[in-house]
Specification:
Layout (H helix, E strand, L loop, with lengths): L2 H4 L7 H12 L6 E5 L6 H13 L12 H5 L10 E4 L4 H9 L10 H10 L7 H10 L10 E5 L7 H12 L5 E7 L7 H4 L3 E4 L5 H9 L6 H10 L4 H7 L3 H21 L2 H12 L5 H19 L24 H19 L4 H13 L10
Parallel strand pairs: 1-4, 1-5, 2-3, 3-4
Amino acid sequence: MSGPDRFAELRGHPGVVEALSRALDEDRLSPALLFHGPAGVGKLTAGMELARSLLCLGDAPRPCRQCDACRRLSASALLHPDVGLLYPQRKRDVEEKRAKDEAPPTAPDLHAIQEEVRRNPSWKILAEPARERLGELFLSPAGGRRRLLLILASERLQEESGNALLKVLEEPPPSALLLLLCENPRTLLPTLRSRCQSYRFGTLSRGTIARFLSGAPRLPPDQATLLASLSGGQLGRGLALAEEVGTYRERRAALTRVLSEARRQKTAAAALIAAAGITADQDRIQEDLAILGDLLRDSMLAGCGCDAALLTEPRGAAESPDGFLFPPLEAAALLGRLERAREDLRHFVNRQLALESLFLDLVNPLTSPLGEE
């Protein structure tokens, strides 16, 4: 089976598809794989397609997508007995389930789990569940030829759980495959990264996302184009925004007004008031930071004279009385500053301090984008 057919549900990423297909065809797949890249670009979809190719019970070419094993490998209801799942959890929840002797969900929805994990950045991959899932890799497969362990948000491995994983990677069981998903591979221990075959999943083109969304029921073609523009190259974000285009625009307009007023005043007090608007709703922090990234990017591209079709929101100039919020060079520099703030939050730096520091720089940068005082 050719690469595109084998990974039929994956949109984009031709290089990853070709590399994985070649490894499958030549039976030289590494026992540990690392799929890394932004959220919502297809890492989980690729993992499910890979699992089908490995566990399919049909005749070659695989996957047949018809056998019992293929039907059990769904991200919305994972039922295959040879695929284990490990992900960040709250310690109290794990202890309560253990005290009640509750079994894990029989058909977990992986998309829902990922979303819950993203909303709770303090959750970690705990040691005890990690040891249990890793121990299962040494058992004989129940229904196929391999045993797989899927690790969601692997950058949140604790020291103990990371060391347990490292021991297994040093001498992995011959029939086992470990698949780690993460957004930023640099947050993993170097010893873990070095034992994994890495595959980078970049953002998708607007055309790829628009073509996929245009096939969605009850979604007009012009709205599919707009959602592709707003998605930032992340198909998952485009799908989520399909129900929230109005909410996105309202929140973007609100952040623009607050920032515009704070930048007009150019005071620390105004910056802190603007930051308070984000910290007040902790569930929306990541979404708000993504919108700030859109504002900065649009300011940079528009200020450089780029075609309006390249902008996340071509109407952005009308959102602020002075046009786009930031001069292009300042916007380019602040994009890096924004990413540092997002990285701080991933490392659980004090949320309020991280956002207040960011807004102080957004409102009144201490240095010019060229590094001059």
